[in-house]
Design goal:
The chain is α+β, with helices and mostly antiparallel strands. It is about 35% helix and about 15% strand. The model has no long low-confidence stretch (mean pLDDT about 90). It comes from Haptolina ericina.
């Protein structure tokens, strides 16, 4: 499954489709599409949910068709294929490597989304940060083990 997602995104980008990759453990609160089309975000090739100090979240990102995003998705799928058999295989580590070792001669504009608007599960449930939860567009139930549906239901996010 992990290998399939970047392959499908690459397939769609090659056909000139803007693609929003969304894991199944995400609850939608506000439609982010108008924000993604706004002047502040319209020029980005890739926009990722943040993993905090752990890099970029591969479970929620927007990819726009460009030479830069196509290059990253190709590099990422190659890296995933190389790493697939290793014990330390992590999709997001592979994404981070691909972004870090990208061809810098190909223009690429990418960024992490605001953590208050696009919080990961650790920020939403575990950190006691002054994050105004009314600003959130989505809630990602990553960084949580087991019974994700129960957690969503308990917090009126289901």
């Amino acid at each position: 499954m992990v290998m399939q997602r970047p392959l499908w995104v690459l397939h769609l980008l090659q056909r000139n489709y803007e693609t929003l990759q969304v894991d199944l453990d995400i609850s939608w609160l506000i439609d982010p599409q108008p924000m993604f089309r706004s002047q502040a975000y319209a020029s980005f090739d890739l926009l990722f949910q943040s993993e905090g100090g752990h890099g970029y979240n591969a479970g929620f990102y927007l990819a726009r068709p460009s030479a830069g995003s196509l290059g990253i998705l190709k590099k990422w799928t190659v890296d995933l294929t190389k790493q697939a058999g290793s014990k330390s295989f992590e999709e997001q580590h592979s994404l981070g490597r691909s972004l870090g070792h990208r061809n810098k001669s190909t223009p690429l504009l990418f960024a992490k989304l605001n953590i208050s608007q696009f919080p990961n599960g650790k920020i939403w449930w575990q950190y006691r940060q002054p994050v105004d939860k009314r600003d959130a567009y989505v809630v990602h139930c990553n960084w949580n083990k087991g019974n994700k549906k129960g957690r969503f239901m308990r917090d009126n996010l289901w």
